Amino acid sequence: MTDSFKQPALDFFLEKFPELNFISNYPLSELTYFKIGGPAEIMVEINKRKDLIDLIKVCRDNKIDFVVLGGASNVIVSDEGLKKLVIVTSNNNLETVDDQVDDQKNISNDSTLIRVDCGIKTSDLVTKTVSMGLTGLEPFFGVPGKLGGAVYNNSHFQTELIGNYIAQVEVLTPQNQIIWISQSECQFNYDYSRFQESGEIILRVEFLLKKGDKQKSKQIIRNSMIYRSKTQPLHLPSSGCIFKNVKNTPKLKKLFNDFANREFISAGFLIDRAGLKGLREGGIEVSAKHAAFMVNHKGGKAKDLRKLIKKVKENVYDKYGVELKEEVFWLE
Asked: What is the pLDDT of residues 3-43, one digit of tens each?
């Protein structure tokens, strides 16, 4: 079944999972934030953790190619589409688990442990935790996509990393075992987690959050959204920052004295200083509002994005001697 996913594969899934809605030739451009991508030969949306586990096990047992997506905010799908099963997670259960944990968790009186499904929208998670009187996740209100992707990427807003608030992550291993992985074992770093290499599927996440003040939390959200609207091209299709921030170098420290004491320099700053805002390839453009963003002006293709990324990389390398690395993930 790895060669093709047409009617035989669709019939196979319908027989195994008659309660699920499998769709053939689903246009992934309707799903991705960048509005780019060809069709998925088969797509299914999953809203129950058990269905997600069972479906992945069947795919693995039968050597069927699949990919798991959440909000598809940080992925670029090829123009040709994906000849595999695309599983979209929408399972979004959230519960407090303080009464289920052992003493080793050391839950203090001013903290609460919550357990959340991978398919919840990141913004919805923030809204719910704030309504529960919990604080910590407010800066991530504007992070697009769903929780599974945010954990996979260790999403950030300015200096805040979502991994800092995670207690542990439940995964389905490549051997189809369900295990919990501690925060330290997740190997969280800037734009990185072990899940980018381990083949583990994120199922649920536990956050240890402090009790806070609802009004203060709402003000933090307002402030972050005002900042985003002023600095980011939120009105156009985009996958956010295309490039990771750059490790500082002696040359950059000499050129930009204001950043001499910083470990990293914004990729967007370097792209801007290289005069690349407004650079365009087909329907894709380096945003005039935030140079780390590339935006789709309607009709942009993955091939246009590749060409534009190549041009930006070459220009920045020629000017500053640093190689930009992509923050987005390509699916082909």
From this structure: 455 567 889 999 999 999 999 999 999 999 999 999 999 99
Q: State the amino acid at position 50 in one-letter form.
A: K
Longest distance between any two alpha carbons in the chain, whole Å: 64
Top-level CATH class of 233-331?
A: alpha beta
CATH fold of 94-217 reads 3.30.465
The residue count for the chain: 332
Contacts 24+ apart (CB under 8 A), 252-260: 252/320, 252/322, 255/320
Pair of tokens at residue 25: 């030739």
CA distance 321 to 5: 45
Domain range summary for the chain, segments of one domain joined by + = 8-89, 94-217, 233-331
H or E, element range at 296: strand 293-296
Give residue 310's pLDDT: 98
Q: Which of 67, 74, 73, 64 is nearest to 26 (CA)?
A: 67
CA 68 to CA 86: how far, in whole Å?
Answer: 6
Question: Residue 68 pLDDT > 90, yes or no?
Answer: yes
For residues 86 and 40, is the Cβ–Cβ distance under 8 A? yes
Q: Which fold has domain 8-89?
A: 3.30.43
Phi, psi of 266 (to 5 degrees): -60, 130
Please tell me the distance from the alpha carbon of residue 327 to that of residue 75, in angstroms, as a whole number: 9
* Spatial contact of 295 and 283, defined as CB atoms under 8 Å apart: no
pTM of the model: 0.92
